[in-house]
Amino acid sequence: MAILEALDRMTPVSGSSTVVSPENFIKCLKKFYSHWKEDVYGLWGSPGAIAVATPPYSDDIRYRKSLALSMWFFGRDFADTIMVFLSSQIHFLSGQDGCDLLEHLKMPVSKAVGLDIVLHNIEKAGNGSLSMDQILNSVCAQYESNCVVMGHIAREKPEGKVLEEWYQKLHGSRFILPAEHYSSY
Fold first, then answer.
1. H helices within 9-128, ranges in order?
2. Threshold 0.85, pTM exceeds
3. Taking a C-beta distance cutoff of 8 angstroms, is the pair 165, 132 a contact?
């Protein structure tokens, strides 16, 4: 909760649209990265990367931090999407519709913030496993280490085949998941 409260104090973006505003996304990215750098040892547990995984669409109305972050970043929720934030890249694993909506952010984000957006498409019948491996390998390659701290929202239970696969990969991998040890959530 402290994460969202801290970010919320920095003028959140609200609304719902089928188009993602590059200006609003860049504004939120700058705030997110600034907060991450300022509070590197606090809320996220000193990570080299931060992963946010949003569940599939559901009629069950619950408050989920991952969906709140998605709404804050994009002005809409991106269901069944995995976002991995690195110091020089952001990886998105999403369905084709999500990738199409995010494609136009690549150039403005690169120019304004110096981050490369890497899109990975989840095939209709798949669970994104191969793309997840590519993302996790990119994290290790960027930090030239096989043991990277990966911040994530620990208390959200994985829902759906994509998030369940992601959960298994994170927890069965070489990554250190500090949220398991911190109570700041």
1. 22-38, 65-74, 96-103, 106-113
2. no
3. yes
